UniProtKB/TrEMBL annotation:
EC number(s) given by UniProt: 5.6.2.4
Residue ranges of every copy of the UvrD-like helicase ATP-binding domain listed in the record: 8-284
Nucleotide-binding among keywords: yes
Family according to the record: Belongs to the helicase family. UvrD subfamily.
Keywords: ATP-binding, DNA-binding, Helicase, Hydrolase, Isomerase, Nucleotide-binding
Pfam families attached to this UniProt entry: PcrA_UvrD_tudor, UvrD-helicase, UvrD_C
Protein name: DNA 3'-5' helicase
NCBIfam families, sorted: PRK11773.1, uvrD
Annotated ranges, domain UvrD-like helicase C-terminal: 285-562
Domain of life: Bacteria
Gene3D superfamilies assigned: 1.10.10.160, P-loop containing nucleotide triphosphate hydrolases, PCRA, domain 4
Enzyme's top EC category: isomerase
Length: 721
DNA sequence: ATCCCAGAACTTTTT
DNA sequence: GTTCTGGGAT
């Protein structure tokens, strides 16, 4: 590609960033302002104009998806291979360095990665051994604590524990770390911290990477945490060509350690120039104006205002639903209309604050026979049956892996009970041995009863046997061999019902994934299996066996970041839901919620609907939320209210409507409950739920605007208790 | 080893 | 209200 072509089609600011001299730079890139484009073109520019070698490029993203996209677009732009460049996620790149220098990092060659589930099991095990009450100290919280400390670059010894609680946490952290080290295991946070420490402690190594990576590019910089910042700074050294791209207004991961202030810190530490990308190529002027106005309510912004030379577009529609069912019905209705106008389902998205909200929406879509796809949820490589299989493979490749040992020693059941297991654990603890070797020792010392000893021996031989047999097999054959010979397949085949069938299918899909897997040529893995295992932990399997059909896209606001859709619905925009209850109680959280709202709004290209429900069944209770404060922050001339809100009046004593009130409401309208379809005119304070003695019914109510009154179609679904 | 029930949880998510 | 989990009973 010709050099001038690299700048063609870019606006002035984008061009300025792409063609900037070698210097540290912050590109403050608003939503939909073409930041990926700038990064990609910058890489091409560095190569073609600055004669940078591909080996000098180090491009970091947060997600595998973003890394993959960047690599693909670079290759497209430079019309060649991006091999030699390091383009990947923070964890992927740090992991790569650790593999290459596992000795310096004091890790076994076949070290394995713990996902958060493994991590929690590991902690639970420790808590039992340390006699700590799990009720008082849930493994989840402790895992959270440990990760948070690692994210800040803190080892147990760096923590000043002033009170007994923190001292306990510190003790568990310490024990956990020892257990991981002994087993050759690293958790996600450990990958970064360990890599950081190795580079810091090995000046020769560090110099090597610093000299090699003359050009560092970082995407989504507002999401970096402390250790990520330090890691980048270390590798950058005094290089003066680091380009970071980010948007302080889209920082929504503060709750998991992201430091929005890293952007400002970068400006100081690296004496960087700032370039702003404010022209938006995605949304209508109306949507942008509303989003801008909203975000201006935040303080300490770096300042940025999106604009477009495109259409004004339609106003943002705000719908005040009677309850969550009405909300779902409304949304589905609008999607239906949109579909009938000749649009694709997959161009519409429903965004919500928390996953629990998806259910009612799903039911409504199902009722209309509309296809949908929900993002998030259980990932492929995290499924129980998949993890079982992977843990066998982990154990095959690294006998020290205690987490894997614990998981599969009695899966499928082979007569190794709690007693035998705690025997092995005791021995392991006493001798500071991995469980595998403790089990071996116990058998040799004949400390077990005949039956238990046979069972354990058979297990050890099983794993050894797999390793002996898979030597010259392909990866897929190895997996197949392991899944079948361990009895896993038989176990899940025997499991009845839809669930068992799905699990068998997943195991087959795992073999398929092995077939598809390509070992990265330039990374240092001792075996294809090793590479595959790392892949399964770092890439959770999004896209595995996924169908691409035309469907409504459903996801949380968080997972919508980076995406765009012509038609967007934001559901449940109510006080207590969004901003969430807890964000209103803790200080500083509110602004992040507002940024989340900003992110949500700026996903919409053409039309945005925002809905809120006056009544909502939440955790089994009827809640009456007022519309979100964020709605009040939108400028009047950008919005239209589809249904003027009515005041829902609950009876004084109870937060639920009473049966008599419900019956009265229906009787007043001249209809009886139980009648399949009812037509009624309802006024303010419409009663939506009916609960009678002996039978429980949920009244589903459909509303359409008819002048100042509402024509109501309702039917009751009576369910005997 | 398996099953069943009581009790707890319950933002947001990538790696 | 629902779903998951852990512990106790069979």
């Amino acid at each position: 590609m010709d050099v001038s072509e690299l700048l063609d089609g870019l606006n002035d600011n984008q061009r300025e960033a792409v063609a900037a001299p070698l210097q540290n730079m912050l590109v403050l890139a608003g939503a939909g302002s073409g930041k990926t484009r700038v990064l990609v073109h910058r890489i091409a520019w560095l190569m073609q104009v600055e004669n940078a070698s591909p080996y000098s490029v180090f491009a970091v993203t947060f997600t595998n998806k973003a890394a993959k996209e960047m690599r693909a677009r670079v290759e497209q732009t430079i019309e060649g291979s991006a091999g030699g460049m390091w383009i990947g996620t923070f964890h992927g790149l740090a992991h790569r360095i650790l593999r290459a220098h596992h000795r310096e990092a004091k890790l076994p060659e076949s070290f394995q990665i713990l996902d958060s589930d493994d991590q929690q099991r590991m902690i639970r095990r420790l808590l039992k051994a340390m006699n700590i009450d799990e009720k008082k100290w849930p493994a989840k919280h402790i895992a959270w604590y440990i990760s948070a400390k690692k994210d800040e670059g803190l080892r147990p010894g760096d923590i000043q524990a002033y009170d007994v609680n923190e001292q306990l946490l510190q003790r568990v952290y310490s024990a956990y770390q020892e257990a991981c080290d002994r087993a050759g295991l690293v958790d996600f946070a450990e990958i970064l911290l360990r890599c950081y420490e190795v580079l810091q402690q090995q000046p020769t190594l560090l110099r090597h990477y610093q000299q090699r990576f003359a050009h560092i590019l970082v995407d989504e910089f507002q999401d970096t945490n402390t250790i990520q910042y330090r890691w980048l700074a270390l590798i950058a050294g005094d290089t003066n060509s680091m380009m970071i791209v980010g948007d302080d207004d889209q920082s929504i991961y503060g709750w998991r350690g992201a430091r929005i202030e890293n952007i400002k810190r970068f400006l100081d530490d690296f004496d960087a120039e700032t370039i702003r990308l404010e022209q938006n190529y995605r949304s209508t002027a109306t949507i942008l104006k509303a989003a801008n106005t909203l975000i201006e309510n935040n303080s300490e912004r770096m300042g940025k205002s999106l604009w477009t030379d495109g259409n004004q577009g339609e106003p943002i529609s705000i719908y005040a639903a009677f309850n969550e069912l009405d909300e779902a019905r409304f949304i589905v209705g609008k999607i239906k209309t949109w579909l009938q106008a000749g649009n694709a389902l997959s161009d519409s998205a429903i965004l919500y604050r928390n996953n629990a909200q998806s259910r009612v929406l799903e039911e409504a879509l199902l009722q209309e026979g509309m296809k949908y796809r929900i993002y998030g949820g259980m990932r492929f490589f995290e499924r129980q049956e998949i993890k079982d299989a992977l843990c066998y493979l982990r154990l095959v490749s690294n006998r020290q892996d205690d987490a894997a040992f614990e998981r599969v020693i009695n899966t499928p059941t082979r007569g190794i009970g709690d007693k035998t297991l705690s025997h092995i654990r005791d021995c392991a603890r006493a001798e500071s041995l991995p469980l595998w070797y403790a089990a071996k020792a116990i058998i040799e010392q004949q400390h077990l009863s005949g039956r238990a000893a046979t069972a354990v021996t058979r297990f050890l031989e099983l794993v050894d046997g797999i390793e002996a047999r898979i030597g010259d097999l392909t990866l897929a054959e190895q997996a197949k061999y392991a899944i079948e010979n361990t009895g896993l397949m038989a176990m899940y085949q025997a499991e009845k019902g839809e669930k068992g069938r799905a699990r068998v299918e997943n195991l087959e899909e795992l073999i398929n994934a092995c077939e598809q897997y390509e070992l990265p040529v330039d990374e240092e893995f001792s075996s294809p299996l090793q590479g595959f295992l790392a892949y399964t932990s770092l890439e959770s399997g999004e896209g595995q066996a996924e169908e691409h059909e035309d469907a409504v896209q459903m996801m949380t606001l968080h997972s919508a970041k980076g995406l765009e859709f012509p038609l967007v619905f934001m559901a449940g925009v109510e006080e207590g839901m969004f901003p969430s209850q807890q964000s209103q109680e803790e200080s500083g959280r509110l602004e992040e919620e507002r940024r989340l709202c900003y992110v949500g709004m700026t996903r919409a290209m053409d039309k945005l609907y925002i809905t809120h429900a006056e009544a909502r069944r939440l955790y089994g209770q009827e809640k009456y939320h007022s519309p979100s404060r964020f709605l009040r922050e939108l400028p009047d001339d950008c919005i239209e209210e589809i249904r003027v809100r009515t005041k829902v009046t609950a009876p004084q004593q109870s937060s639920r409507f009473s049966p008599s009130l419900t019956q009265a409401a229906f009787a007043d309208s001249g209809f009886n409950l139980g009648q399949r379809v009812l037509h009624a005119k309802f006024g303010e304070g419409t009663v939506l739920n009916y609960e009678g003695a002996g039978a429980q019914s949920r009244v589903q109510v459909n509303f359409d605007d008819v002048g100042s009154k509402w024509l109501v179609t309702a039917y009751a679904r009576l369910q005997a208790l």
